Amino acid sequence: MKINLKHFFWLLLVLSVQIAVAQGGAISGTVTDNKGVPIPGVNIVLKGTNVSTQTDFDGNFKIQAKTGDILVASYVSFATIEVKASNSMTIKMVETQNELEAVLVVGYGTQSKKNLTDNIARVTAKDIQQVPVANVQNALVGKLAGVQITQTNGKVEGGMNIRVRGAASISASTQPLYVLDGIPLITDDESSNGAPTNPLLTLSPNEIESIDVLKDASSAAIYGARGANGVVIITTKKGKEGKGNFSLNFSQGISEATHTKKFLNAKQYVELLQEAGRNVDDLESVEDELEYLSQGTDWRNGEIDTNWQDIALRTGYTTDADFSVSGGDDKTKYFFAGAYNNTTGIVDSNDLERITARSNVSHKITDHFTAGMNIGFSRSVINRVQDDNSFSTPMQSLAQAPISQARLEDGTPNPNTEYVNYLLAKDNTSWKTIMRRVTGKIFGELKLVKDLKFNSDFAYDLLTQTEDYWQGKNAPFMATDGAVFATSVNTESYIFSNYFTYDLTFAENHTINAVAGMEFNKYNRRYQDVNSIYFPNDSFHTVDGGAEVNEGHGSETDYAFVSQFGRFNYSFKNKYLFKASIRRDGSSRFGKNERFAVFPAFSAGWVMSQEEFLKDNTVLSYLKLKASWGKVGNAEVGNFASRQLYRPSSYNLKSGLTFSQAGNDNLTWEKSSQTDVGIEAGFLNKINLEVDYYDKRTDGLLFAKPLALSSGATSINTNIGEIKSSGFEFTLNTKNVETEKFKWTTSFNLTTNNSKVKSLPNNNTDVITSYNINRVGENISSFYLVEYAGVDPANGDALFVKNTVNADGSLDKSTTNDYSEAKRIVAGNPFPTLMSGLTNTINYKNFDFNFTFQGEWGASIYNSAGIYMSTAADYFDNQTADQLNRWQNPGDITNVPQARFGGSNGTQESTRYLDKADFIRLRNVTLGYSLPKETVQKAGMSNLRIYFTAVNLLTFTNYEGTDPEARRDDTGIGEDFYSAPPARTMAIGVNINF
Q: Residue 13: how many CB atoms within 10 A of its CB?
């Protein structure tokens, strides 16, 4: 007899269901939100078992259970709840997105937002997923009040600058402490080519559950000596009890520069240079050089018209693919993930390829003991170009003459350009950087008694980086037959943490949470490099191919921290809140007399809406006042800043020692104290408002104080100086529309910041560096430049404001065409004083739409390349198109002086090249569509979503440079020097869940 397999399997299924029902019964019901709208995809678990199910498209479910059993319902962005099972039951879930029920990670524990007295900003996985950027920090831009995030420039490995509530230092690091699952991450920049790399490229967004930024000192003080610049706590995803989930994501994107400058074409270039030569009676030498640059081509009639910018910048491509598997039962929970990113950068010859993997597992061994392990691995391969100040970097080719060929007829790079042709570097050099990272943590949690538990964590972070710089025999500036420079650095850090947590509620109204423990952190770095020369041919790209190893270096360094910490939270009736914390840190980095310091913090809150006079108010649904004070430190001052140092010195093949640094046994960390007051208010359960004022003061700044030459050293590291940062933060979250088919929410944040210098060493003597100054009463690292006054309409001379001091103490504001007669003034701020972000999320039926605008105001950028590219043909560099507006005849009104070849007419460093960098940017936008549940379930899937997403889609600005976020990557503060703009990326992708 022929058996119909389809009917046979249906028979088995029906029989199985009947047996299950006969044994345990079935409970059916519906899951809705607090508005009664059904929620599909909710996990329903019979507590204490692995029996689970999910709600269908209409929110209905059926599970093998009996009346009185406990069911656990969980869903993303909703609070997990436990309910007793009953027939035809309805489970109502409460959304936690931007709500008081949200649980924040606060360091060595968690805390609900409703009981929070600190200032912590949070983003979750859905805020950063599917943003087509290679680094996690870039996905946070515009979403956090008080946090400024800027990528150095458009290179794929570009360093990230993050400032939490303004700068907390001048000479030490201003970057926050990053903590991944309790592991303080290594964030050292180990680049050896002049431009920074971003160590956090090693993280993939698909493994991140949430990011909490501890902004005020009360929240950051639990990290003591390393919390002055804020703390970024990154929590990776973990398995949840219930049905296993398999998720896939794939996207493909295309990128281009957000904006480019307009340069002269060949005809304009020739005309301007000829005019500049005639104006100084030197046309002959100008045309001689034009003959050389054109190499026999007809430059007078524009035979060659090379757009070097089109060669330096290209179309980029991005491929992202990732997967995750998660699930668990009441004993074991697991999360496994992997991701692949391949980014072809918009800068020629700049690429990134990264793979990451993560495994997080926990197991409840007994009712009292749980153990687990988190392991992450990544490998990033970066093909790099040199720093912005290198002639062989692509962007500096913009200075080349458009009448010069990029390549000769045989395809080889033209070697006879004004500056070295970067294509020689492209064809004959390579710079490959490989970053490998392993993060791991094993942990155990022991419940000693009902309300007391003990946690023991051992964590390890290993970051290794190798760089190989190969130069062939035809590489620029090559004096030998090829060279290879190879570096290797291994940096590791391990952290051993042990702490007790006590939670107690008594007499119904009193709640206590206390944490106390200790921590030991050991860091080690080992660096080596070697250089070899004289290669037989260009087929050899490693050190051993050279005939002579002519140079090598090596070093090793380490430091240690030992810490004790404690935190106490108390709540009375959930309306009177108090928190105190303290941490004692000791570090090998500091002088033996100042090796330990204590960092206390206090905060309090009053939930006024719980009082009888507001409790039943239907308009004002929530109101909390809070205030905090704390002290934190900045330990990023180098490992040997306090030590008396000697360096090796040799003479006539004899070794010796030379004194190199004076010691200071009293040197210690910079200390920041911060006061924060704020209010949180909710209206109609639809509008949430947070307003905070902060005042952050840092004293004991690390400075190199000059010494008398007779001391044998030029300076000594000391703790002198004070700065202050203050401002307001506003965060507004609204639920604009909530219906069964249509939901629209908005999140808006606004931040003001002023960072001022309060005192400096050597009797408040100004600290001046190139274009910047630190002066008491002024913004940190203010621009310090001669003031440009435009052009004399009578003769085309560049004019400058004298700004010399008159006898009465006022400034002489008269102008001069003699640059040496003008004095520098404080002319601008490299940092914004106002920042904002606006995010809207809209869901309509199966469509989802999300977009974020970001804005910054008050900052300026100094184009330090302006003295080359915008000088009206002072030399043979190609010029920006605005130089065509030069003065030509008496009476002309313009801001561009007369073109004078070699005449230095207004080419000096001045505010002529300083510009406001205010902008508003459509930072990211995403449009998605989820196929109907009944359609995808037939294919064995629980969800299938296709989406379009974009980054930096639109920019609104009056800034005349390349881009208001582009900065030079080799040095300087607030400078642009032939810097690549950020990328505008558009991608399409698909999410699949099983």
A: 10
Q: Are residues 659 and 754 in the same domain?
A: yes
Residue 21 is predicted with a pLDDT of: 39
- C-beta separation of 80 from 70 below 8 A: no
Q: What does the alpha-carbon distance between residue 311 and residue 492 come to, in Å, rounded to a whole number?
A: 40
Cβ count within 10 A of residue 362 = 20
Average pLDDT across each block of 10 residues of the chain; the chain has 994 residues. List them in order.
45 40 68 75 81 78 88 76 87 68 82 85 81 78 87 83 86 88 91 87 89 90 91 91 87 94 96 97 95 94 95 95 91 94 95 96 93 96 93 94 96 95 95 96 93 94 96 91 95 96 88 95 96 93 92 92 95 92 93 91 93 85 94 87 82 78 86 94 91 94 78 81 94 91 93 94 87 94 96 97 92 95 95 95 93 95 96 96 96 96 96 96 94 85 91 94 91 92 94 89
Note whether 58 and 42 are within 8 A (CB): no
Same domain, 174 and 87: no
Do 89 and 147 reside in the same domain of the chain? no
Q: Which two tokens stand for residue 623?
A: 């109101």
One domain for residues 856 and 753: yes
Q: Rounded distance, CA 63 to CA 44, Å?
A: 8
Residues 171 and 71 in one domain: no
With a CB cutoff of 8 Å and minimum separation 6, the contacts of 576 are 605, 606, 607
CA distances from residue 519 to 499, 514, 635 in whole angstroms, order as listed: 8, 17, 16
Q: Are 417 and 295 in contact (CB under 8 A)?
A: no
Query: Does the residue 962 lie in any domain?
Result: yes
Residue 35's domain spans which residues? 20-93
Classify residue 896 by its DSSP letter: B
Same domain, 64 and 172: no
Alpha carbon distance 948, 925 (integer Å): 8
Query: pTM value?
Result: 0.87
952 domain residue, yes or no? yes
Q: What is the CATH number of the domain that holds 206?
A: 2.40.170.20
* Same domain, yes or no: 859 and 936: yes
CATH number, position 64:
2.60.40.1120
Distance CA 782, CA 763 (A): 19
Closest-CA residue to 117 (of 679, 627, 514, 502): 627
Cα 461 to Cα 441: distance, rounded to the nearest angstrom? 9
Phi-psi region of 16 (alpha: psi -120 to 50; beta: other; left: phi over 0): alpha
Domain total of the chain: 2
The answer on 846 and 782 residing in a single domain is: yes
d(CA 786, CA 801): 7
d(CA 566, CA 501): 10
DSSP codes of every residue in 280-315: TT-HHHHHHHHHHHHTTS-GGGTS----HHHHHB--
Residue 82 carries which side chain, given as an amino acid letter? E
How many CB atoms are closer than 10 A to CB 916? 16
Domain membership flag for residue 298: no
Q: Is residue 124 part of a domain?
A: no
